[in-house]
Structures are given as structure tokens and as C-alpha cells.
# Entry
Amino acid sequence: MSTIFARVIGKYQRTASRVMFRRMIRMRNPQPIVTFTFDDFPQSALRVGGEILRTHGMCGTYYASLGLMNQVTPTGLIFSPDDLPSLIAQGHELGCHTFAHCDSWETAPAEFERSVEKNRLALERLQSGVRFPTLSYPITCPRPHTKRRVARRFGCCRFGGQTYNREMLDLNLVSAHFLEKDRGEVSVVAGLVDETLRNGGWLVIATHDIADDHTPYGCTPAFFEAVVRHVANSGALVLPMAKALEQVRGGS
# Structure
């Protein structure tokens, strides 16, 4: 596939994801919000990243694919069942990332939804009474009919986009900013935090592993700490995804 053709296909996929099967609401959060999220839930995201959040009195959302537990993946060593009680006890939120970490565009919508259901059942067996309130699409943007199917299961579904959310929000495609794309430049995400505050928006920050020898999809503890410190000093309300969504809907 040529580079030009690949770009055309990629633009088509992103556009289709953005404009079809939307679930729009007007944002009514009384103050700006920042949310920290971790895709795949590598152990370091909780044991290192979670500890950094804890020192600042913050909690985040960890998007888990239970079919990856205890495996070494391109984003590092994934969490074990023993990590779940600790995550919950610390006040963090657990989100769905499909059971098999399905590619959100390449996977047929019906198969994607089956993997979502399998993840739900696996969580029920491990932690009875705990549920996934939100979803993060793995790897790529979702097919439009995948958006339609998961809408009835989750309060909102998160993707990427390297931007923040303001004014009108598609609950089926919440935007997020991935830290690894900043290449260690704190000023990039700091500027986005400041813009979010000026415009009363909701910034969802995303990454994977947190380690000095992090994968291409993660970042160092020092960089993450600097970002968290900037958010803490900004005055933004910091909440996990589901609690942030309550505020976006006009909570007090």
C-alpha cells in the first residue's frame, strides 16, 4: 500500500468514525476537568503512575483487556488479578478495553461487541459487583457500527485525537491526548491543560506504561510527574472518566 493511499484510507476511517452514529450532548461542567487514563493497564501504570497520582490526591481510569492479564505485550507487562483489589481500594476506576484487545476498525462490530461482553463476564468472575462504566477503543478509531453497538453499554467511549473536549461532546467518541506523542516535552501538554482551563473544557490524558525504560507507547515517571504536577497547580478538577462524565452532564 502506497503512503498516499494509506493516508487517504486513514482519513476516511477517522472521518467516518467522527461523523456517524454520534451521541451528542452539550457540556455543562461547572469547572474545567482533567482525567488521567491508562490503556492496556500495564502493571507500571498502577504501581508507578498510580503512586504519582496518589501523592497528588488524584485517581485515574485504567482500561483493561482481561484476556491480556499477566502477559508481556508491546506496552509492557500487563496487570495480574492481584492488582485489581488494590486498584479499586485506591479509588481508581476500571474501564473496558475489550477482552482480546480488538483492533477497533479491523474487527467486525458484532465480534467487537462479543469481546466487550466477554470482558464484562471475566470481570464479574474476578471482582463481583464491579463494572466497567466506560470504554476505550483499542489501537484504531472505531467503525461507525461499532460506535452504535457500544453506545448502549457505556456512559461514554474514549478514543484519541490529541485534543480536549469543549461545548458539544460525542459520548461515543470522547477525545483524548496521548502523552507519548509529546516526546517528553511537558510544554506541549501543559499548553493544552491551560487551553482547557481557559475554555472550560474536559481534557482526557492517556498513556500506557510508566517506566524509565518505557515502551514506545508510554513515558518516564519524571515526565508523568511533571504533567501531574502542572495539572495539580492548574486548579482543574481531576476525576476518573465516569465521575468526570457526571460533571460534564451538569453535576455539582
Summary: The mean pLDDT is 96. The first strand starts at residue 24 and ends at 26. Helices lie at 3-19, 43-55, 83-89, 109-126, 144-150, 186-198, 221-234, 241-248.
